Amino acid sequence: MWRQALMTLFVLLLASGPSPAVQPDEILKDSVLESRARNLSRELRCMVCQNQSIDDSEAPLARDLRLLVRERLTQGDTDQQVLDFLVSRYGNFVLLKPPLEWHTILLWGLPPAALIAGLVGLILKGRRKEPTASATEALSQDEERRLSTLVDGRLPKP
Amino acid sequence: MIPELGHYALVLALALGMIQAIAPVVGARTNDSTLIQLAASTSIMQFVFVGLAFLALVGCYVTSDFSVATVYENSHSMMPLIYKITSVWGNHEGSMLLWVLILSLFGALVGSFGTNLPSVLKAHVLAVQSWIACAFYLFILFTSNPFVRLSQAPFEGRDLNPILQDIGLAIHPPLLYLGYVGFSIAFSFAIAALIEGRIDAAWARWVRPWTLAAWMFLTIGIAMGSYWAYYELGWGGFWFWDPVENASLMPWLAGTALLHSAVVMEKRSALKIWTILLAILAFSLSLIGTFLVRSGVLTSVHTFANDPARGVFILAILMLFIGGGLILFAWRAPALKQGGLFAPISREGALVLNNLFLTTACLTVFVGTLYPLALEALTGEKISVGAPFFNLTFAPLFIPLLVVMPFGPLMAWKRGDILGVAQRLFAAFGIGIVVVALTFVAEGGRSILAPLGLGLASFIMIGALTDIAERMGLFRLPLLAAWQRAIGLPRSVWGTALAHFGIAVTLLGIVGVSTWASELIAAIKPKQSVSLSGYELAFEGLVQRTGANYREAAARFTVREGGVPIATMEPSKRSFTARATITTEAALLTRGFSQLYLSLGDVNGDGSISVRLYHKPLVLLIWLGAVVMAFGAALSLSDRRLRIGIPKPATKTTMQPAE
Asked: Do B360 and A111 touch (CB under 8 A)?
């Protein structure tokens, strides 16, 4: 049901005509504040869109959020305070980079864990087996020859 | 009549598929060569019948037969012919038909060109291929039949989604599917090997060209999709870490790992079990990609329909093949004989490291894409995982991979000499350092990321060239001799070097556009102008135009560089009447590898228009790099050692020049 509603909204948005996300009238005079606002906007999700930041989205809600971010910044909030404010209002859903909490441990932890486990495994395996001359000869010469003949119909170089 | 014939052809393909799914397996058990031979002909006939079904559907679209439901929903009589044809796969039903068309094409290719394969292996491969095909024929016939008629034919169709009315739709999905589905061959080979319980270096040699071909198409397909999104969606990004993009990136990463591990298996008959697993995973990820996009779990431009029945059906297919494949793997793989050993510092070792990083990168994308879905299903909690997460986690995995990449091809098999390799890479490393220093100075020390990125890219490029130079004996041998050796080098060596070079080209583009891009958002009135990065754009006025099935309002800009007019740019907004939809068409001006990107916003009350102007330095290199990579793959494919399809008299033993 909500998916259908979302779809309808999507279509409606398209019908109103997409326009570049950040509108000229939103831009702050202070270029430092503006660039902070842009950076923050890229971290925040447009909640009615699929996987778009409010910086990219042309939805009205995204515009409201962009204006809100700029308002807080001009009032002297730090970047973190702006993010905290938005999280308190909309929950973690608004952050495109979820914070590390107990329910996101797997999200953040799995990739490095896999990499480390892989490296450790490889090192252990490398220690256990030292290559020996006999073990590395996988195919006998005759087998090599048969393989080559099979594959491209000629003899390997002697 | 035509749609019914198409429908019937598809049913016949299913019937043939069922025969092919069973007969060769029985034949292999009972040593019945007739049953074994059957698979080759049924695979070709399957392709013929699916091809007929597909042609029938194309016919319905071209003639705008609105009595067919999908034609009514996705086509319009006023559309240009090219879009009438591409809208065949611009919707769920048709795109699934394209999917099975390509699946049956690959089956037919194995059937007709795999003449050098052992007959039992070939029989099993074709049987597995047919299991997949049958599952998808059933899926189409039961849940997504593109030939369903409406009881009353409407006069006019509802038009194709205007965002899809682009030449990109003609290129992107077919290429992507050639890649996705191409991995089915590797999967079938893996399952066949597990069924037979026998696997050797020859197996890797047979699988590699198919994997290479699939990888090549997938590379181009992803790049094409990225470029399409870049110019069509209107905000000039090239990669959004959208779940649908991730769905295509995962098989690419697994496929890249598979390509490299298959080399080890072919040359040194090591990593057998791992290669089999990767072959299963690469196609499993393709299936997951299909599931994510087709089931409606994700809603985006790519998801044409949301129907739970379809989702459940695809999920069942998914579990059958991925689950079945992995269970078979767990059961049979331990019985496979492990092959050659190698020292950690060796070509094999380098390729293992490559595989470790690629699979971890793949896992990262997998977790990031599916975690929000899983978390919401399990706890009801909603989180978002977007570009900032992936940029943070993906880059640290990919950069080490890129740093060690030039070492791999220079390393010797079995036991390598890392100091020797480092010495040979000295020139590449030196040039890299010089590039870092020069960029740092030229930039006035503004950032450290750009110099490092450029330095890494040049290190990889020169490293790839070093490999070729070493092999042809450049600087050691007389020029003529070196030239002759260069000609004599196997094409796969050139292919490797090119593909690695291509990665660096893409990296260069990404670094360029993410560090030096500039942007200007402004509201301007006619006769006013804006300037950015040395270009001055004067707004001349609005122009009205009519296309085949849309009206267009374009804003004409004259672009000047140093006061000299160099071009006009006309970004526009198109209004498609049939769907009451408006699209934004950005205007692009290419200067070397860089682009000016101009997209149009709203017309404001005071008569001014909002525009968004970007200067994107080196942006074209991102996609050009992918083209270079794919060209490298094509070159490798043309290596005669890999052209297994061409039957040659096995008894002819004339000496040929050594490679």
From this structure: yes
- The yes-or-no verdict on residue A2 having pLDDT over 50 is no
Q: How far apart are CA A33 and CA A19, in angstroms?
A: 23
* Partners of residue B567 on adjacent β-strands: B559
Judged by a CB distance cut-off of 8 A, whether residue B581 touches chain A is yes
Nearest residue, CB atoms, B521 vs list A20, A126, A150: A20
Where would I find the H helices in B411-522? Answer: 418-424, 426-442, 449-472, 479-488, 491-516
State both tokens at B502: 């291509």
Whole-prediction pTM:
0.89
Distance from CA of A143 to the nearest CA of B (A): 10
Q: Which of residues 587-606 of B touch A (CB under 8 A)?
A: 599-602
- For residue B26, the tally of other CB atoms under 10 A from its CB is 14
3-state class of B80 per DSSP? coil
Exposed/middle/buried for residue A12 (C-beta within 10 Å: 0-12, 13-18, 19+): exposed
Q: Which of B400, B239, B371, B515 is nearest to A109 (CA)?
A: B371
B164, B87 contact by CB (below 8 A): yes
pLDDT tens digits for range B206-230? 898 999 999 999 999 999 999 998 9
Write out pLDDT tens, residues B197-212: 888 888 888 898 999 9
Judge whether B132 and B280 are in contact, CB under 8 Å: no
Mean pLDDT for each consecutive 10-residue tract of chain B (659 residues)? 94 96 92 90 96 97 94 91 93 93 95 87 94 95 93 89 88 93 95 88 87 95 93 82 90 95 86 92 92 68 58 87 93 79 83 93 94 85 90 91 91 83 88 91 83 94 90 83 84 92 95 90 89 92 86 91 92 85 89 92 80 93 96 89 47 42
Residue identified by tokens 């672009």 is B559
Under an 8 A CB cutoff, do A103 and B381 touch?
A: yes
C-alpha to C-alpha distances, A74 to A32, A67, A68, A70, B165, nearest whole angstrom? 11, 11, 10, 6, 43
Cβ(B122)–Cβ(B40) below 8 Å: yes
C-alpha pair distances (Å), B203 with each of B188, B190, B264, B336, B584: 12, 9, 12, 13, 50
Report the complex ipTM: 0.82
B652 to A154: CB separation less than 8 angstroms, yes or no: yes
